[in-house]
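Throughout our pipeline, every protein is held as a single compact record rather than as scattered files. The record that follows is passed on verbatim for readers who wish to inspect the format:
___
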Amino acid sequence: MILWELFFTFFQIGLFTIGGGYAMIPMITTQVTAKGWASLEAVTDFIAVSESTPGPFAINIATFLGFKTAGVAGAAASTLGVVMPSFIIISLIARFFLSFGDNQYVKHALFGLRPVVLGLILSAAFAIARANLFPASGVDWPGIAIAVAAFILLRKAKKLHPGLVMLMAAGVGILVYGVIMA
């Protein structure tokens, strides 16, 4: 039963979110926490791990959450669920694209979806920031300082790779939370 629920939940997430993995975060968070599969803090941790792990973000997070919920079979069910809608839709589009690819209505519809995708990504970013920087226990000032420093580094040092900034922030986090505040 849980495998079917994982598959169907992630199938819905894959079907009804447009814009890739980051646009899925609000729906994943809502579904997973509502079903009791993970807390908001755990989902945030899965997001961080999924982002830093090679491969598509949506597949990584579905796999991690499925594994946490029902082991290897859960990972397979949730991964298959999140991938299946895209596979079906892309197969259909590829078959019929030549007949409607230049259609102005299709072009306008896709153009109109851009702000929605941006809104979904910003919503996810604010939810993650709120959960991590303003937890129920109070304001996480060191976390805010690390986030602001990372943002400034990415904006000012244009040639600095985001992966390097993540590694630097992880090092500072280990130092602050693991050594100084421990």
